[in-house]
Design a protein that fits this description.
The chain is an all-alpha fold. The chain is built from 2 helices and no strands. It is rod-shaped, with a radius of gyration of 24 Å.
Length: about 80
Amino acid sequence: MLQIKLPKEDKDVIIRSVQTYFEEERGESIGELAAEQLIDFMIGELGPAVYNKAIENVRKMIFEKNSQVDDELYALQKPIQRR
């Protein structure tokens, strides 16, 4: 199973962001523990889909880059002169 673990510094920033969101958008206060639990839940629910989409995007990018390299290699080929 895919397990996504964020560095503590990143998670702390996200916790504060979630707390700010709840305060500004919902008029509710949410503690650090509740925010962290919400983040962990959302990572568990959304993490695999986001991860799979990222893999799909990287796969597409690599395919495009490989196609460019292939085109450049063909351009470098020298014609063989027949006598």
